[in-house]
Design a protein that fits this description.
Length: 174
Amino acid sequence: EKEGLTPQEDDLPDLNVDLRAAWYQSQRTDPELAPLVLKPTEGYCLAADGLLEHYVVPTTRNEGKWVAVVPNGEAATGMTWKFFCWKQDHVGILGAHRSAGKTYGRLSQVCYWENMKADFEIWVNQCIVCIRDRKRPTKTHSVAVRPSLLQCWEEVSMDFEGPLTPEDRYGNKY
């Protein structure tokens, strides 16, 4: 039995450890990340558990932090790890279908991959719920202004329609 844990707490799976273990395997098989795992460049490092991390300064914080690098592998059939992370934050229990910018602000505090913002823009624009509930500007109809100091027939307005093709039988286009 682990120190400081009751048997009930010990029985619960540690999702963070399981996720990091899955990413550990996927990072090593990812052709883009494998060279960084072998020799991390500036801004990258290997965590104590061997997971590749990247130093980021999230948009919502002043100080930087090390966050896990999301690999390109599949989390489930037809779903990449990157899409899985986005979906958990955008649609999940805490999601609320936020905009791409807000979703990026939240998710950039816990994970990283190249072109996160661009991916979020694409996925948010394809989200059916976001499309359905998006606020669209509506055209406000202008009200005709009537000057009160003018006499009858001092101002006349006309509406023209056209040009029409084909012309009418008299050759009129308007």
